[in-house]
Amino acid sequence: MSLLRVSCLSKHYEGPRSLVRRLSGVAHTVVRAVNDVSLSVDRGEILGLIGESGCGKSTLGRAILRLHEPTSGKVEFDGADVTALPPPALKAMRRRMQIIFQDPYASLNPRRTVAEIVGLPLALHGIARGDEARRITERVLEKVGLHAGQLDRYPHQFSGGQRQRIGIARALVSNPEFIVCDEPVSALDVSIQAQIIALLLDLKRDLGLTYLFISHDISVIGYLSDRVAVMYLGEIVETGPVAAVLDAPRHPYTQSLLSAVPEIGVKRSRGRVRLQGDLPSPLNPPAGCKFHTRCPLAVAACQTVVPETRQVGPGHTAACHRLDENLSLLEGAR
Fold this sequence. Notes:
By secondary structure, this protein is an alpha/beta fold. Helices cover 29% and strands 22% of the residues. The protein has a domain at 2-17 and 28-96 and 176-248: Rossmann fold, CATH 3.40.50.300.
């Protein structure tokens, strides 16, 4: 059963206007950061979200939580329409939906102690105050591998990995059910990444948590996730069980991402697909399939017709005009 269901969610921003545009009176441009995204996350599941930097992964995660107000679409959490909740009901819902940010230093207030940072949600939601809040905070710190003697320290007195543990403790203190993990290990050393990943898995098992895990590291996604969604220029192009998507990707973009993963050994098990050009601007996205400007398999229809999302296996979907041909960029690429 789906704990979270996202339907046709979009988040657009007003883009910058150049001097020429301002003088000519041209209407403001629109940045389509997230465009018509639909996905679901089952209770107790980890859904991995991957894609290049700038494709809209973090914006999607924050729009789901309404940290950024969606432009259109619907987010349902445990049957409740999050996008329609008034402020008091949304505040209550935030106890159940939390986020772990990417930067373990910028996301912590340098003027507050650990006790204040982690304990603040308890006060905001009316859960506990004073000595009771401190006792709860101590228990949560122990769950993330810190101890009560560190409660009165400030963020600058901790290492990067310890700061991220503080951020995780802050997300956990209100006893949530769903957490958006917004690249929580990308700013950490590799050895520390492994510790934080192990911690997140332990917490999921012990507390019955559900994660939307955002990352550009396919190896991390492959290790953690039950299912994976692939995002390109604000749209989901492929979803499915992690083994199906990573072992037998159907969308050319997914295939190109997988070909870039380093492999240890004398000979690569698959070829390297080198895409031409840069990620198009969300200010002026291509018509048709948004990947056609970089796709070696593109045909004339890709330039004008938006591909339909189709099922290609059990729980496995992709949006590409050439799915029937079962083509793979990984075959023969060197």
